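Hey team,

Sharing the Aminopeptidase run so nobody has to redo it. Sequence (928 residues) first:
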Amino acid sequence: MKLLATLLVASAMLLGVSMASISSSYSYYRLPTALRPKKYDLRVLTHLENPEELRFEGNVKILIEVLENTKNITLHAKNLTIDEALITLKDTSSADKKNCISSTEVNSQHDFYVMQTCNELLAGEVYELSMPFSADLNRQLEGYYRSSYLDPVANVTRWLSITQFEPASARLAFPCFDEPNFKAPFVVTLGYHKKYTGLSNMPVKEIKNNDQIADYIWCEFLESVPMSTYLIAYSVNDFAHKPSTLPNSTLFRTWARPNAIDQCDYASGFGPKVLQYYEDLFGIKFPLPKIDQIAIPDFSAGAMENWGLVTYREIALLYSAAHSSLVDKQRVASIIAHELAHQWFGNLVTMKWWTDLWLNEGFATYVASLGVENINPEWHALEQESLGNLLTIFRRDALESSHPISRPIEMVSEISESFDQISYQKGSTVLRMMHMFLGDESFRAGLQKYLLKYSYGNAEQDNLWESLTEAAHKYRALPKSYDIKSIMDSWTLQTGYPIINVTRNYEQGTAKLTQERYLLNTQIARAARGGCWWVPLSYATQGEQDFNNTAPKAWMECDKNGGVLPKTITDLPGNDQWVIFNTQLSTLYKVNYDERNWKLLIETLTNGEFERIHVINRAQLIDDALYLAWTGEQDYEIAMRLVEYLQREREYLPWKSAFENLKRIKNIIRQTPNYEFFKRYMQKLIAPIYLHLNGLNDTFSGIEQQEQVLLKTMVGNWACQYQVEDCIEVAQSYYRAWRAEPKPDEKNPVPINLRPTVYCTSIRQGSDSDWQFLWTRYKNSNVAAEKRTILTSLGCSREVWLLQRYLELTFDPKEGIRRQDSMWAFQAIAYNEIGFHLAREYFMNNVDFIYKFYHPITKDMSRLLPPFSEQTFLESDFEDFKNFVTANRGSLKGLEQAIQQTLETMLTNVQWKQRNYRQLSRSIETMI
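Structure output:
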């Protein structure tokens, strides 16, 4: 903002315009409500020909409706050069009524640009404000910025421009009312050299020659529907596209750089199908005449749902059958489905303020899994996504430093912190819970009512609760005395989730249930945990294994003051039968049973018909048992005996649950003398499933179930880490065969799904030349998914000097690692037991440089922290990191939430080591 302020002061002195103090007296963080934009006419001229001078200039005309008399116009502008002599203001009701801007001031804290008017603006009148602006196309991956790619034929760098406005960066591109509830239609006109293509939210209306600049054109787009500023998008590029419009449907195109257009086939086929699914689900046709999706080489967010012009990282949109694995393909499908769900949830109906960001992100995450499930049912995407979200949230939300799904936002800088796992995965998880207790009919009817009622407007979560309550009562999905708001507020307005303790009376066939917040930090007294959640209770018994019925058989309720009401369940079986609560993990809670129930479950898992327990509930039992042992509510002996049944397990989800949990133990125990026992235990656990899946042999073409592909991929990775059977030598033989290829960039004999395992294992066991060979493949690759696999694998080396060099390469833009990908390389080094200490030292010694490298998108810097939090378990290291944080607050600005969670996770590791290390070691020793 300094630049803007300086320019304003200079121009004021030149023009003799009075200039108010540069700190506005209005200091509230939200815009005043006296004015509303009615329409924007935005003209932007973009210069891309000279790489030394990539810039834009333009003019915005805003029709402003006055709701209350006022003497000023306050809107947002940031880092823009504005010549205030050229600002005009006219009353549209009459040419005779003159008005003008008498002075301007800037509030840099809130990015406000404040204009004092010559005459009072009168309620009911409409004014036209015209403002010029200009700036460089920045390198910061936000606002209106530059990106580039190398044209391999001409061997030159090609430049393009693109926008990223969410949450509050439209103000970097043009002066505007940059809050979500100031919706208005936009007419966008782009000026650029005629060799480029211009894209925006709407279809092209007309193209005319630019009279002032030779070979330049003006491209005007149709007027948009009313929309929030963060959804405006435009780009000037030389990309190619693939059309894929379905009959009688919206014009659909997928764009990428010309040398990657062959990677658009999958996305261009999947996109229109999922769009059509949503039209049916929501009962509302997609409101725009066209939709474009475009893969941007430099892009910080995973993807962005701009209405009608959806932008993606290349890895999120492009798919190459020759280089991308099944995991890569599922990621592309899931992200496209997420962004297209936003066209309704977020774009058509937008949250009033960022407090309810989760209404956008939680919904798009949940509805995306419904969309993928509908189009590719053979993937079982809904089960996988649901369990993945639950495993993430069980961890993140068990921290005291977590936050509610719906959280107050009082500074723009706080908004980006909300784009986290709580808004996305926890938001999605509680919506899935609601879908399951309401049933399909009332859930869908409630959503349709909400979307219709608030179309082209803004809403809060209470508006959604009203629509859903109405539908729930209409379809008798809830008793009349229950309302969605009471139930769901307990999940969205308080932090955390409950653990439900089930104490059975086997003689009477009853169970007493209690709830309290589950926390990983065991130093927090039980009395301080508190909280009450409305919990839909579903359960299955050994005699009645009805796991498909997820409807609640009872509810745990809260009183008016948020206190827990006691709950007893009756009609349970006798003392020879288990009970499992939370069928298909339909609700976000952990369950602890009495010892007898755990033993009955272990008996069925190890000796009985364990497959009759639903696969998600098998994953749940593993996760619950290992968590409860971690925090001391359960014995490690019980947990490890339960996990041993995995030698019989042949499904993906229970193994995924186990590996997620065992990884946490591994990260600590591998730095201790007792790692030997853990290693032998893991070998014993993994060998049967590794052999069952034919090891690392390429049997993928014969696998019918897609989940078995994921299982084989995951087991192979763990088997090589623990030197199981022939894993390492088979991996190395694949790698040697690739190195022997005369044209390794064109022909790769390593099976696609095994590449992460083969590369990492071969680099870990290999020579300097093995590393150099893979680094060259990275440089030559044209496929984003392959580049990420290679980046991660290069961090597997055990050579200190190589890892040290790799750390330097990671943050050197000239080396070809794009900024958005640097954290993958850093994490790979830091998760390596040898690289961990090097990465921590590098981070602590270079924190200023790293902060500047990522600024202003500090969220990307926060992704460097998990390896530290997960592998620090000594009190001295914890104290060191705490002191480092205190001494470097300036270089960790904007990372406050991530730092807090890092320190708390470290503390829980220290506690675990002190409390459980010996007990776990003993129970493992008895099993090997």
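The first helix runs from residue 2 to 15.

Ping me if you want the raw files.
A.
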